[in-house]
């Protein structure tokens, strides 16, 4: 699936819900599906700065693709990082670096988060983008 197809799929999924409460529940469900993140990897160097919640993110290059892993100690935040990983993990660094991350606006995510969560979202995106640019 291409990056654009993945983003379109997410937009379609979010369009099924009329209320943001339902979208938050969906995000929480996505977070629960995240691959377990080892406690031993929850180190300060993997923490995303700028998030009110604690969010750990790391990545590796494999076969020319960036593969991300993440976890958070907050349910909605865990869902947000899960959504980002679903779309961006397994992509080439250039695909990620060149993307505008408008997906979060297309689904209304940024506009429907508290200011502190929105800042955290921006930090998550910046970290993913920086990992991509470092590996282009």
Poorly predicted ranges (pLDDT <50, ≥5 residues)? none
CATH topology grouping: Sufe protein. Chain: A
User: Helical segment tally?
Assistant: 6
CATH hierarchy: architecture: Alpha-Beta Complex
> Any idea what the radius of gyration is?
14 Å
Structural class from helices and strands? Answer: mainly alpha
**What's the quaternary structure here?**
single chain
- Kindly estimate the percentage of residues that lie in beta strands according to DSSP: 5-15%
End-to-end Cα distance, whole Å, is 21 Å
Order of helices and strands: HHEEHHHH
Mean pLDDT: 95
Helix content: 40-55%
CATH class: Alpha Beta
The largest sheet is: 2 strands, antiparallel
Strand numbers in spatial order across the main sheet: 1-2
Work out the number of β strands: 2
Number of domains: 1
Shape: globular
Describe the structure in your own words.
The protein has 136 residues and is mostly helical. The protein has a single domain (3-135), classed as Sufe protein. Chain: A (Alpha-Beta Complex), CATH 3.90.1010.10. The chain contains 6 helices and 2 strands. Strands 1-2 form a two-stranded antiparallel sheet. A hairpin with a 2-residue loop joins strand 1 and strand 2. Helix 1 runs antiparallel to helix 3 and helix 2 (20-32) crosses helix 3 (75-88). The radius of gyration is 14 Å and the shape is globular. The mean pLDDT is 95.
Which key phrases capture this entry?
136 residues, mainly alpha, Sufe protein. Chain: A, two-stranded antiparallel sheet, 12% strand, globular
Q: What's the layout of helices and strands?
A:
Blueprint: H1 3-15, H2 20-32, E1 55-62, E2 65-72, H3 75-88, H4 93-98, H5 103-106, H6 115-134
Antiparallel strand pairs: 1-2
Helix pairs in contact: 1-3, 2-3, 3-6
